[in-house]
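Anyone up for a design puzzle?
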């Protein structure tokens, strides 16, 4: 399946009735993150945009198929050391670029495990707009990667193994 651009997804959201009604009722809300799951092994892709106001997060799931409706979920904002800052979609590195960038970095770090899934969050971290990626590869390998959304520069790249997260008795 071809991965849509973040701009196409945003346009689809903005044209939807559910989003128009939301913006009318919440004019001070703002985009704080984009959340995207791309499972290359299964061919399942999930896309959503998160908006916030002072008290709540509004997540809009964009369906993979045009005939499906956009769904909104509302949650209260939890206390956190990291705030959810306003973000715009003025980026140079798009969703479709992420796989190639990660696969290039796998080669650069001599990691031979095949990339199976990317969980990508477009957000502001340390005053920079970045793609915060968690990547699953064959053999229980997990890659944590931050990619600058303007330059495609790698800000962080860490390899872990799923077994690192399992507590030993």
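Challenge accepted. My sequence:
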């Amino acid at each position: 399946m071809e991965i849509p651009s973040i701009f196409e997804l945003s346009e689809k959201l903005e044209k939807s009735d559910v989003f128009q009604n939301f913006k009318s009722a919440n004019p001070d809300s703002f985009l704080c993150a984009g959340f995207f799951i791309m499972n290359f092994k299964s061919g399942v892709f999930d896309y959503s945009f998160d908006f916030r106001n002072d008290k709540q997060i509004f997540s809009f799931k964009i369906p993979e198929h045009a005939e499906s409706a956009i769904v909104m979920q509302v949650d209260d904002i939890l206390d956190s050391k990291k705030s959810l800052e306003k973000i715009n979609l003025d980026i140079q590195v798009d969703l479709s670029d992420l796989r190639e960038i990660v696969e290039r970095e796998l080669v650069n770090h001599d990691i031979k495990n095949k990339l199976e899934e990317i969980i990508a969050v477009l957000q502001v971290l340390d005053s920079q707009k970045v793609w915060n990626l968690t990547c699953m590869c064959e053999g229980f390998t997990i890659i944590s990667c931050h990619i600058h959304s303007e330059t495609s520069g790698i800000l962080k790249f860490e390899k872990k193994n799923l077994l690192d997260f399992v507590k030993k008795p």
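A detail worth pointing out: The chain has three helices and eight strands.
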